[in-house]
Specification:
The structure holds two protein chains of two kinds. Chain A is an all-alpha fold. In chain A, strand 1 and strand 2 form a beta hairpin. In chain A, helix 1 packs parallel to helix 7, helix 4 crosses helix 5 and helix 7 crosses helix 8. Chain A is flat and about 95 Å long. Chain A starts with 8 loop residues before the first helix and ends with a helix. Chain B starts with a helix and ends in a 6-residue tail after the last helix. Chain B has one domain. Chain B is an all-alpha fold. The longest helix of chain B has 30 residues. Chain B is 71% helix and 0% strand. The chains are: A mainly alpha, B mainly alpha.
């Protein structure tokens, strides 16, 4: 992947969907992630509703970023987000009633989704309008993708269907627990364990970031900055990894140089006297 | 049914059968994040009980007194979240001024609760089920008690697990989620009481 220029629309989309995926990398918005992913279609519905709210709220907050006074920014953001959530709720109720019915109380609860306030605080309040819109879109699509994946997995295991279509024949009974509450925990546990195993970047798989588990541990900042907190953890991780690699490289180079020098010295010593040779043999024994 | 039966039934239903964390998936962030030690978990639980009970009373009163008569129910979400945010702020200031010991015990946890979806969730559930004022307070209290029970059990298990030889990939978040899943299975057992 070649380096994209910072804050361009494409870079923001890539960032939201892959690099800083809100569910898998930043571990934000756990409640809807676990609650509504009983089927793939629910995941899509929830993801897209959140994405719509995220785009609109990022747009408005970015437009108002110089007008909203710093001390009252959180209440202002909450009211802006709540307004858009209400609009989305009414639209869903009017046009896609089945989705509205199956998502239930989790539509109004989009207001308290950490991702939205997190992005408002960490990105939209500091950046221009166009990148903010694409930031919202990228994060929203990343969230949708994650919810759809988890939903598909749970639906496949728990009901033997995908998007409502039968995949596993009736002869094999589905493992019903995966569409029930405990299944959500198990699926996410396995996914995060896999992530740890593959050593993929995540805000939660390192000791120093454990304090900021999900959005909870770092809760003192959770009134919106939790996104920034987890973001910091991921960036820090990348930085320490790079540093370690650099150090290793430097050490390797140094070691090679030393080896070379030692070899040269030994050669010279061997030519000079046989005593040195025996001495060296003793050294290597030790 | 007598009043006592109704009260008991509501408490058992909201706290155990429909446990807010383990079957409704609300308030997961503090449940996973602040459950390392029993002491902090208990503090968080107490703060949540306080805030949810008061928030249920306030939002129910607002809904019945103002929003419903004026047909402004589409403003539910906005009004409720604003009320909750303000309530948490006031509670913090009030406790700091008038009850320093209680503030020391609960103070740190209060600001964390604004974005806890269990609070807004409890308020919205009361409205959805069209509960009366008294019933709202009662079910709010039950919900919060359920949260406290779940987070304290979780903290107890995690304290015991601290030195367990867990496979490397499962350390941290995954094992916590697995414990939560097993607890959810256990709490499903309460469903047969109903």
């Amino acid at each position: 992947m070649k380096k994209l220029k910072k804050n361009t629309p494409l870079e923001r989309l890539w960032n939201g969907i892959i690099k800083e995926n809100p569910t898998f990398i930043l571990m934000l918005g756990m409640c809807p992630t676990l609650a509504v992913t009983t089927s793939a279609i629910n995941g899509v519905g929830m993801g897209l509703s959140t994405a719509a709210v995220l785009v609109m709220s990022n747009l408005v907050i970015s437009l108002l970023r110089k007008i909203i006074p710093g001390q009252v920014r959180m209440p202002a953001y909450i009211v802006i987000v709540a307004s858009f959530v209400t609009i989305i709720e009414m639209l869903l109720h009017a046009f896609v009633t089945p989705v509205y019915d199956s998502l239930g109380i989790f539509i109004p609860l989009i207001v308290v989704n950490c991702i939205i306030l997190g992005r408002a605080e960490a990105y939209a309040s500091k950046n221009k309008v166009i990148p903010s819109i694409f930031d919202g879109l990228g994060m929203g699509l990343g969230f949708t993708l994650a919810l759809t994946l988890i939903g598909m997995l749970r639906e496949f295991l728990g009901a033997g269907t995908l998007f409502g279509m039968q995949v596993i024949p009736d002869v094999i009974p589905p493992i019903a627990i995966f569409v029930l509450a405990p299944g959500a925990f198990f699926v996410l546990a396995c996914l995060t364990a896999l992530q740890n195993k593959l050593n993929a970047p995540s805000a939660t798989n390192k000791p120093e970031a454990e304090a900021s588990l999900a959005c909870g541990g770092d809760c003192s900042k959770c009134a919106g900055t939790c996104g920034a907190g987890n973001h910091r953890a991921v960036i820090l991780d990348a930085a320490t990894k790079k540093e370690a690699a650099d150090r290793e490289k430097a050490a390797a180079a140094k070691a090679a140089a030393e080896k070379k020098a030692a070899a040269k010295k030994a050669e010279a010593a061997a030519q000079n006297s046989p005593v040195a040779k025996t001495e060296q043999g003793g050294d290597s024994h030790e | 049914m007598s009043d006592i039966t109704v009260i008991l039934l509501t408490l058992v239903t909201t706290a155990l059968i429909n446990n807010v964390v383990l079957s409704q998936f609300m308030g997961l962030c503090p449940f996973l994040g602040v459950s390392k030690q029993i002491k902090t978990a208990a503090g968080m639980g107490a703060a949540v009980i306080f805030v949810i009970t008061v928030a249920s009373a306030l939002t129910s009163a607002l809904y019945r007194g103002i929003l419903l008569p004026l047909e402004l129910t589409y403003l539910n979400t906005i009004v409720f979240i604003a009320v909750i945010a303000a309530l948490v702020q006031f509670a913090e200031m009030f406790l700091r001024k008038f009850s320093p010991p209680l503030y020391n015990a609960l103070g740190v946890y209060l600001p964390l609760i604004t974005t806890n979806c269990a609070v807004l969730g409890a308020a919205l559930t009361n409205v959805q089920k069209d509960y009366s004022f008294g019933m709202s307070v009662l079910s709010g209290f039950g919900t919060a008690a359920g949260f406290a029970i779940a987070i304290i059990i979780m903290a107890g298990i995690r304290e015991k697990m601290a030195h367990a030889p867990i496979p490397k990939a499962f350390r941290g978040m995954p094992i916590t989620l697995l414990i939560a899943g097993l607890m959810a299975i256990a709490f499903m057992g309460f469903g047969s009481i109903a």
